[in-house]
Amino acid sequence: MPRRVLVTRPEAESRELAEALRRRGIEPVTAPMLAIEPTGATVGDAGRYRAAVVTSGNGADGLAAATTYRAMPVFAVGEATAERLRGQGFTAIEAAGGTGLALVELILDKVRPASGPLLWVSGDEVRVDMAEELGRHGYEVERVIAYRAVAAADLPAAARCALAEGTADGVLFFSPRTAERFASLVAGAGLTKRAAAMTAHCLSAAVAEAARSLPWAAIRIARRPTRDDLLATLDDTTASDPD
């Protein structure tokens, strides 16, 4: 029987990730912990902004939905988000190293505060407040909330079954919020002890911290906060965090 891994990303991201897992010979079990709901926000005069700032793949989709202007420069939090922007027709894109603070550093290096306002397209909940961080350095940042992330109310049936029967080897976590929600739903379903035979694969130390309420057999943390590095933890046992 092939290894089975639960995928906790929102549905759209889960489909792409599932294909990447199948190419590795791993059977994905989709278990979205968040549902993405677009707000329908629009940007009337995108050309007046010096650049756009996008802190997630869903933010990239939100920017594309909010304006038809594709010539604007865009600063993306990481390469996966940059690729999503390219797929939406944007061409002047610079990608940071995968974290909000890395994105701040990139903008500080590339853009002068006096060169014009920045458009930040985000979800309703964020870990790094780009307006606050960049505002400290004199930047004018206008935020547009393009989507809301709604937490799952229950464990999906396939995930619940995999946990109850002990057929899942691990779980992929991309954010603290999804890790926290998963842990809460597992506890609510009376399946906490099942985690003791599984590995939590976490995008960052912050994600791992959020997952620690379950008694995992192991926690593995990506070397860098990228999808490819997270997938590498499925093979690289040296990425483990034993504590």
From TrEMBL:
Gene Ontology molecular function terms on file: uroporphyrinogen-III synthase activity
Signal sequence range: none
The EC number(s) this enzyme carries: 4.2.1.75
Highest taxon, organism lineage: Bacteria
Catalytic reactions on record: hydroxymethylbilane = uroporphyrinogen III + H2O
GO biological process entries: protoporphyrinogen IX biosynthetic process; uroporphyrinogen III biosynthetic process
Pathway(s) this gene product operates in, as recorded in its UniProt entry: Porphyrin-containing compound metabolism; protoporphyrin-IX biosynthesis; coproporphyrinogen-III from 5-aminolevulinate: step 3/4
Domain named Tetrapyrrole biosynthesis uroporphyrinogen III synthase: residues: 16-231
Entry keywords, A to Z: Lyase, Porphyrin biosynthesis
InterPro entries in the record: 4pyrrol_syn_uPrphyn_synt_sf, 4pyrrol_synth_uPrphyn_synth, UROS/Hem4
CDD domains in alphabetical order: HemD (cd06578)
Function: Catalyzes cyclization of the linear tetrapyrrole, hydroxymethylbilane, to the macrocyclic uroporphyrinogen III.
Family listed: Belongs to the uroporphyrinogen-III synthase family.
Name of the protein this chain belongs to: Uroporphyrinogen-III synthase
Lineage: Bacteria, Pseudomonadati, Pseudomonadota, Alphaproteobacteria, Rhodospirillales
